[in-house]
Amino acid sequence: FKGGDTCEYLLSSGRFLGEKVWQPHSCMMHKYKNSEAKNCLIDKHIVFIGDSRIRQLFYSFIKLINPQVKEGNKHGNIPFEDKSASIKVDFLWYPEVNGSMRQRIKSWTEGSVAKPHIIVVGAATWSIKIHNGSNEALTQYKINITSIAPLLEKLAKSSDVYWVLQDPVYEDMLSDSRKMITNEKIDAYNEAAVRILNSSSRNSKAKVKVFSVSKLIAQETIMKSADGLHLPESSRDTNAMILMNVYCNKIMKPIDGSCCQPQPPLTLIQKLAFCFFTLSIIGYLIIHLIHRNNFRKNKSCTDLESGEEKKPAISTPNVSTLEMLLHSFCKLGLIMTYFYLCDRANLFMKENKFYTHSSFFIPIVYILVLGVFYTENTKETKVLNREQTDEWKGWMQLVILIYHISGASTFLPVYMHIRVLVAAYLFQTGYGHFSYFWIKGDFGVYRVCQVLFRLNFLVVVLCIVMDRPYQFYYFVPLVTVWFMIIYATLAIWPQIVQKKANGNCLWHFALLLKLICLLTCIYFLSYSQGAFEKIFSFWPLSKCFELNGNVYEWWFRWKLDRYVVFHGMLFAFIYLALQKRQMISEGKGDPLFSNRVSNVLLFISIVSFLTYSIWASSCKNKTECNELHPSVSVVQILAFILIRNIPGYARSVYSSFFAWFGKISLELFICQYHIWLAADTKGILVLIPGYPMFNVLVSTFIFVCVAHEISQITNDLAQIVVPKDNSTLLKRLLCIAGFFSGLLLFSAMQDQSRH
């Protein structure tokens, strides 16, 4: 509400999330690693000037560069140098704001002396202590800081200059020699510094930045101080991290560091997209006005001779198709504007996530209760019928959304269970597409194009509007590639479908041979990273699957659930074979097998389900658990399917609440990146500051409505862009190929201009 200067917010305001996580007002703070800090500060000279409190900040700062540094209490200058990155950080011992400090600062303003890139200054407690808190000392402090202020303002034109305000003290813990350092005195010194600094350059961009956030942090943590004067280590580290964010965010541009980052300039592709959507809106409005005008002219009127009403002329199909196309792009353009404003413009606030068990488990319980309330009878009672799979997708998607917004990925047992949910989506991909091709035998281009369009339309638009690579939305490339693998496995010679296999059992063995070949290829690629990367490093595949200049992320994502699609295909094959031979009972209310077999399988399924949960909850190392996950995730998935389908009464009902969300699960998964979460899922979007619960309610309502609308737009456009007529479809495919060729060309131009 005060404007868009997030640097000012970072330096002056914020609050603690829990005990140690600092949340700046309105923006997100990145946690810099040693390598990132070195890359940012390469060839830089940083100087800290002041007393023992500034010395503490100096040590916390250099530990971000080299964690092995040992602290000391030396009352003197302390040099630090990292030769590998040519970084120099110096602490200069000037405990009072006096002539000596002024002389040192003045030396940097004269002649050709190399100026430090960052200067951090602050002192006052020594003046209070030495002069026993006298008013004369405060008067002298004002005189001295008045003489230093112009020099600092002059340095601020070429360097980053920070004045650190004095932190409050914990008076009860102060030693007798420091009892005169009171919070009242500290406030008086701080007030003098703030009033005098920048007084001569209020309208200038070059200003001394006042580092006042340290006061807020100290107010919450000073009682944990060892001596009542110096901050505990965690608070000093937070101050150092804030300092690093203020300087480095505009250089390193971390995704989860929105503080101090300027709004990214529009790319050429984004500008073209803006023009396209603008023209679509104008075109739709013109056609709408023309139709409205024609409707008025052709409005039913009474024939004076016969007394009958004349019917208005019916519009031609071509016009209605064009209007529908423009109407869809018009709505999509407005929605994409909202996406851009939420996650690319510095219009709305963004905050870091903070995980607590209650923030994850309470919403889970709430949605499960809601889901149970909306229970209805299914139209059919087959295993994994349409209502049931929609329900399954729906509750999984809601759990994944809660997992993302609560930041639960930091809690390993929850992370492992969420990995099973992602695997279950891919299991359904294998099951659903295999079942369709096996039963229908439809390997036509129309079916392939319909699936690819519905999966990828939203992501392609977001890649253009939000300037993100295709692989960034990793789940869509994953299901797209697996769909093509399923299609290729079943479509290549010999094409084996259910109708053909029913005539000769040998075809079943031939299909199993195909599946074994597929499993062999998966196994080979999962243990041959080099071969995998070579396949996906060929242009133009590399443009789709590279992230940060390599395809490692894509290999990691693919490898993590490499077997589950195969498991889905195999399950579909076995289930459909059993169904064809009438070895299972799918009547309403009937158990899936005989009572004895059903009870045994149900018991085994429950034990397997709980065993997996116990194993996942006992995980200590994410890397080791991820290694086992591809092989064992199918245990809990199959256990869930059997528990859900063996009892006839469970198979006969479903939750319409979850099923509704299941129908838009893909849109929900993709849209959350930018209009529910923020900074590409690293943070949380804040539409209403100061009211976290109300903010979540409002942003969630908008987010779900947008996802539902995009689902409808995708379905409408799929009918237009992917027609059933083969000759028309071929023309559309040529147009789409031309579109992507142009996109690749403009993308190459963008990359060249960036380099």
UniProtKB/TrEMBL annotation:
Membrane spanning stretches: 268-290, 354-374, 395-416, 451-467, 473-493, 505-525, 560-578, 599-616, 628-646, 658-678, 684-708, 729-749
Topology with respect to the bilayer: Multi-pass membrane protein
Enzyme type, top EC level: transferase
Superkingdom field: Eukaryota
Residue intervals of the NXPE C-terminal domain: 22-80
Reaction(s) the record says it catalyses: CMP-N-acetyl-beta-neuraminate + acetyl-CoA = CMP-N-acetyl-9-O-acetyl-beta-neuraminate + CoA; a ganglioside GD3 (d18:1(4E)) + acetyl-CoA = a ganglioside Ac-O-7-GD3(d18:1(4E)) + CoA; CMP-N-acetyl-beta-neuraminate + acetyl-CoA = CMP-N-acetyl-7-O-acetyl-beta-neuraminate + CoA
Keyword check for Ion transport: no
Keyword Transferase (UniProt): yes
Domain Cas1p 10 TM acyl transferase: start-end pairs: 252-733
Name of the protein described by the UniProt record: N-acetylneuraminate (7)9-O-acetyltransferase
Pfam families: Cas1_AcylT, NXPE4_C
GO molecular function, one term: N-acetylneuraminate 9-O-acetyltransferase activity
Compartments it resides in: Golgi apparatus membrane
EC number: 2.3.1.45
Name of the gene: Casd1
GO biological process: carbohydrate metabolic process
Record keywords: Acyltransferase, Glycoprotein, Golgi apparatus, Membrane, Transferase, Transmembrane, Transmembrane helix
Protein family (similarity comment): Belongs to the PC-esterase family. CASD1 subfamily.
One annotated Gene Ontology cellular component of this protein: Golgi membrane
